[in-house]
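Render this sequence as a predicted structure.
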Amino acid sequence: MSLRVIVIDDHAIVRRGIVDILAERSDLSVVSEAADYGQLRAQLRQHGEVDLLVMDLSLPGKDGIEILKALHGDYPRLKVLIISMYPEEQYAVRAFKAGASGYLNKASAPEKLLEAVDQIVAGRKYVTPVIAQALIHQLAAPEDGLPHERLSDREFQVLKLMASGQRLSDIALTLSLSPKTVSVYRARILEKMHMENNSELVHYAVKHGLA
């Protein structure tokens, strides 16, 4: 019996590439594709809980970490492999904490995708050497991590949006929050990262590949 997979990415060309790689395996069947979280929820209602989601971390309308948390709450047994352009050392640990079963950079060789799928459907986590080092570093010396690693998931989300050039009012609309709440998050971010203004935050985010 084929393992049922849904591929989620907002770029049709990327989705097609992932589907073509998975098609090399006769024991895998991509039952549907989705471009955003709304389409994914509709596909899950239609097909039921599938064996694996292969999902981009950056999707329109809803932050990838928020999506992972929502999926983990509603479908606790659902396995999710994140494929992202974001560096593993910056995002993978948060993804795993939110419920991901594996994390793979989009620059990886195609065979790594199939390797990750094998690990995950066998009930194991797929962890690259880069992610393993990040996990070890965080466990061994959590207080010595980079400033952005001290942020909560929501604060980290606000930081990324600020770094992308969004104003606080735009961020409030994106996250369905009040401008006052977003301002509070901004103040917390500045305090935790020991910075004075938005320019410093944006410079830091660009330097560390968060923008």
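Summary. The two ends are 42 Å apart (CA to CA). The chain has a mean pLDDT of 88.
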